[in-house]
Design a protein that fits this description.
This protein has 216 residues and is of the alpha+beta class. It has one domain. The chain is 29% helix and 27% strand. The strands form three sheets. Strands 1-12-8-4-5-6-7 form a seven-stranded mixed sheet, with helices on both faces. Strands 3-9-10 form a three-stranded antiparallel sheet. A hairpin with a 5-residue loop joins strand 4 and strand 5. 42% of the residues are buried. Keywords: Signal.
Length: 216
């Protein structure tokens, strides 16, 4: 997993267009991992925090994120809802890592919620993200960035109707997201492809991102 501190610095200081300071194209972020590795990381997280952190999002909701022109990747940004539950907010990114202003923001669901995701207004997303970062105070990654290919692959698997996203820890204690397809019964398709190896970002300043990226 790549640590994108240079990106954070750019976000904080640039007032014009937002660029992405890395050599790897956003569309290429993400790689397959084994089921054993994915399950081990999830178990490591459970042992460390005595809880699991699992999110779901339907194919339709993910397609809403990528409906914007020039979308090459997706930010998965952590937020806290009014009940203090952690959520992931999905927002499209360009090949250079700029967050697309006119992309739909999509909220993942957790637990026993019947819906498979919600389209979220930016004015609602912003305070959720700020609340998470105020609580964590940079002690935890603020989000992850993945290439579009990861979601295209997951949703192209036969029978896939959505995406499963779980937080995990590797043997060094580094946080990862484990991504897999969900079937129509919302069961994880562990026998299909499992993905990880996006880029972790410690701080995502949503209001600055939104004002820095010019609408097309």
């Amino acid at each position: 997993m790549r640590n994108l501190r240079p990106l954070v610095a750019l976000i904080m200081v640039m007032a014009g267009s937002l660029t992405y300071a890395q050599t790897t194209a956003v569309s290429s972020l993400g790689a397959r991992i084994s089921r054993e590795t994915g399950e081990q990381w999830i178990n490591n997280y459970r042992k460390q925090f005595n809880i699991t952190s699992v999110h779901r999002c339907s194919a339709d909701m993910i397609q809403e994120v990528f409906r914007t022109a020039d979308a090459s990747g997706v930010y998965l940004i952590k937020g806290l809802d009014n009940e203090g539950n952690e959520r992931l907010i999905l927002k499209a990114a360009t090949e250079n890592g700029a967050m697309l202003k006119d992309s739909k923001a999509v909220l993942t669901v957790t637990g026993n919620e019947q819906s498979a995701g919600y389209v979220l207004d930016d004015l609602m997303a912003r305070p959720m993200i700020e609340k998470f970062q105020q609580v964590q105070k940079k002690n935890e990654l603020g989000g992850h960035l993945y290439g579009k290919k990861v979601f295209e692959n997951l949703l192209s698997q036969p029978g896939a109707t959505g995406v499963y996203i779980a937080k995990g820890l590797d043997e060094q204690g580094q946080e990862h997201l484990v991504l897999a397809a969900l079937d129509k019964n919302e069961k994880v398709m562990w026998t299909a492809d499992i993905w990880n190896h996006g880029s972790g970002i410690f701080l995502i300043v949503y209001p600055i991102l939104m004002s820095a990226v010019a609408a097309r």
